[in-house]
Design goal:
globular; mainly alpha; 7 helices; 202 residues
Length: 202
């Protein structure tokens, strides 16, 4: 009987870890949809414009960019559920919840496309909320694995500091892509870290 329960627990943990793959899927989705939108809009200047221009009314097939953001947000939300399911302390759980909220803001960026009133607000808060999630999960990781926690916090501090330094010298599109790359690296690292765990906290 004890062995049967252990097998069930192992299977449930394995099922939860499958959700971590959605972080990788979200990365692929984000860059694929954005690249597709840029290909449809050859006149878009990456070094002078903002990515939101690809989803504005003046763009060709703006639905490509906007739909891509919503689709990616769904994948990111599922990934956050995976992090929550594999969390081992309350701080990690809080960080995972913050990432869910960030995913909702990402979906809203696609719904309230460039040129609409709430767009700037939801765009900025997507990155703010993502940063908060990364820092919180990093702190939570410190309690379980000091090295892993330091890596995530170092990523967060480096990304935020770099963004503050370059924001007045690069286009919004470059800054947005940099932020997306930082979030992508976080997703890869946490997927690896959390996948190495045996089970959820008791």
């Amino acid at each position: 009987m004890g062995r049967h329960k252990n097998n069930v627990g192992t299977a449930n943990c394995r099922d939860r870890k499958i959700l971590l793959l959605f972080g990788i899927f979200a990365i692929i989705s984000a860059f694929a949809w954005i690249s597709g939108a840029m290909a449809i809009n050859p006149g878009f200047n990456f070094f002078k414009g903002a990515l939101s221009q690809l989803g504005s009314n003046g763009a060709d097939s703006p639905w490509v960019y906007n739909t891509g953001l919503v689709f990616t947000a769904i994948l990111l939300f599922i990934f956050a559920i995976g992090l929550l399911a594999c969390s081992k302390n309350k701080i990690e759980e809080a960080g995972s919840s913050f990432l869910m909220v960030a995913a909702i803001f990402l979906a809203l960026v696609g719904i309230f496309h460039g040129g609409t009133y709430p767009h700037d607000f939801v765009s900025v808060y997507f990155f703010i909320q993502s940063g908060l999630a990364i820092i919180t999960i990093g702190i939570g990781l410190l309690l379980e694995n000091k090295k892993q926690g330091i890596i995530i916090l170092f990523l967060a501090i480096t990304a935020i500091t770099t963004a503050e330094i370059i924001k007045n010298f690069v286009s919004t599109a470059v800054l947005e892509t940099f932020g997306t790359a930082a979030i992508s690296l976080f997703a890869v690292l946490t997927a690896l870290f959390f996948n190495g765990r045996k089970n959820k906290r008791k």
